[in-house]
From TrEMBL:
Keyword match Amino-acid biosynthesis: no
Protein name listed in UniProt: Cobalamin import system permease protein BtuC
CDD domains per UniProt: TM_ABC_iron-siderophores_like
Quaternary structure and partners: The complex is composed of two ATP-binding proteins (BtuD), two transmembrane proteins (BtuC) and a solute-binding protein (BtuF).
Keywords: Cell membrane, Membrane, Transmembrane, Transmembrane helix, Transport
Coiled-coil zones: none
UniProt membrane topology term: Multi-pass membrane protein
One GO CC term on file: plasma membrane
PANTHER family named in the record: ABC TRANSPORTER PERMEASE PROTEIN MJ0876-RELATED, FERRIC ENTEROBACTIN TRANSPORT SYSTEM PERMEASE PROTEIN
């Protein structure tokens, strides 16, 4: 079977799994909804733009209002679903589930690239400090909002993540080359520095301490469609770009010198892979906080199943990551008291990864 056929078959199967997981998750909660009703309510929630109204909305950019067109939407389907169930599914549960799938999709894809980039199965999206940078930006916005020029928590976290990635890359680059070992060490040092900065801000955060700590644990509560709209386009476009470089990522596994002889522009490819992986990680962390183990465990499990070829590994890991985070978030909100999803991913991911270590099934990339 060709790699294209394998990719298509695995992706189709994992997409079907994701759909089943989404329906099951939306059916569970304090008010149980029949899965068939859930499916109809989800279809009713699908909308398409129908008209444009000029100048009805503004976007705050550094305190300045900018008029933008406002789109009006029309539902594609109109199945007969009780209004209460439609609201529960489409307005309360589905935004959270969609955000969980989006963040899991982004983190697993970024983790796959980072593990291939560093040729290390223990690498994850936060290895160069992107998640810590996002946490620093978010805590600053929560504890000291007067210091943040833009009032959005998402934008503060996103900017902190990208600034950290840029600084780490700049520190590690010398003479047009970016040695992977230097990049890794710069990332470790930056994480330590930002960790100290975050601790300082938490000590002086006052009444904002709980909100900051919950954000750093990773959470999906109070998710809205605007959160999904912030992260989804970045994640999808980023993964599509990374997908066009999977052959180069495979070649880089042979070593930079061999990759150069095979015609790969090594430094340009490294920069692009690192930049795009950092961007989609930043988008996920900005809306959901720091969620660990998704980008570490999921790519490794999929590598054991489908093999190391990134042409297959990247899309399958991304889809599996989406299902994984939807499942863990469903567990997080299923108990008598909701817990941050980052705690659940750690509870599930860490023991499973230790099990793989004991079984000696943690393989090199």
């Amino acid at each position: 079977m060709t790699h294209s056929a394998r990719t298509l078959s695995w992706s189709a199967g994992l997409t079907a799994l994701l759909v089943a997981v989404v329906v099951a998750s939306a059916a569970l909660g304090p008010v149980r909804v029949d899965p068939s009703t859930v499916a109809l309510a989800i279809l009713n929630a699908i909308v398409v733009p129908s008209s444009v109204t000029a100048g009805s909305l503004t976007i705050p950019i550094v305190g300045v209002g900018v008029p933008v067109p406002s789109l009006e939407y029309t539902s594609v389907f109109a199945f007969d679903v009780p209004n209460t169930h439609q609201i529960i599914v489409a307005d309360i549960r589905l935004p959270r589930i969609a955000l969980a799938a989006t963040v899991g999709f982004a983190l697993a894809a970024a983790g796959t690239v980072m593990q291939g980039f560093f040729r290390n199965p223990l690498a994850d999206p936060s290895i160069i400090g992107v998640s810590t940078g996002a946490a620093a930006g978010a805590v600053a916005a929560i504890a000291f909002p007067m210091l943040v020029p833009f009032g959005s928590l998402h934008l503060a976290a996103f900017a902190g993540a990208l600034l950290t990635a840029f600084l780490v890359y700049s520190i590690a680059t010398e003479g047009g080359r970016t040695p992977v070992a230097t990049l890794l060490l710069a990332g470790v040092a930056m994480q330590a520095f930002l960790g100290a900065l975050i601790s300082y801000m938490l000590v002086h955060s006052g009444d904002s301490l709980r909100q900051a700590v919950v954000w750093m644990m990773g959470h999906l509560s109070n998710s809205t469609w605007s959160d999904v709209g912030f992260a989804l386009p970045v994640a999808v476009l980023g993964v599509l770009v990374l997908g066009s470089y999977t052959r180069d990522l495979n070649v880089l596994l042979l070593g930079e010198e061999d990759a150069h002889h095979l015609g790969t522009e090594v430094e340009r490819t490294k920069f692009l892979l690192l930049a795009v992986a950092s961007i989609i990680t930043a988008a996920g962390v900005a809306v959901a906080g720091v969620i660990g183990f998704v980008g570490l465990v999921v790519p490794h499990i999929m590598r054991l199943i489908v093999g190391p070829d990134h042409r297959i590994l990247l899309p399958t890991s991304a889809l599996a990551g989406a299902s994984f985070l939807v499942i863990t978030d469903t567990i997080a909100r299923a108990g008598p008291a909701e817990v941050p999803v980052g705690i659940i991913t750690a509870f599930v991911g860490a023991p499973f990864f230790l099990f793989l270590l004991v079984r000696r099934e943690v393989t090199s990339v």
